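Bench notes, afternoon.
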Amino acid sequence: MVVADDQEIVRTGLTMILDAQPGIEVVGQAADGREAVALARRLRPDVCLFDIRMPGTDGIEATRLLAGPGVEDPLAVVVITVFDLDEYVYAALRAGARGFLLKDAGADLLAQAVRAAAAGDALIAPGVTRRLLDAFARNRPAGPPEQPAEALTDREEQILRAVARGRTNDEIARETYIAVSTVKTHIAGIMAKLGARNRVEVAMWAYETGRAGNTPR
């Protein structure tokens, strides 16, 4: 994976934490977004971990360039920041990020987010969930959200809500008493119906349509 942060001590610390995790290897480091994009395009890592606030090209723009709409072969990007701001959460996920963490998340959650992104899943820091709902409510486009041509089944609606809450496939399987493989099949079906590229886009649609819980209308 590639790690990008403009502070050397933070970049080094993140690299040490990640390299110590089984199955995770940092293959490149960058001090700004432009360098990160060039490095990621050259190395094609399984996951990129980007700080939001970097000089020049920031983490959100770097994410958009590597994973945003229109990118032919998008990379998995997890965004990490110390800034607890709603607009950052919204902008990062709109740019194509598969995860959003605060820098106080801890080594375990950081590793989980990286592994989830590599597997095509998404992990949003639990403490961000409420703000994420609020941010989507404030930024929701005028008018009713676009509905799929084929309605979701009751089971798909149940799994959609779980995805929107940040549940992993294993957690959804335990909560719904079905096999993990069945969960994956349902999620694939939901993505196909919504035209979503990943779980984050599925969650975003759930927020925008008020299906993610107590989303403000």
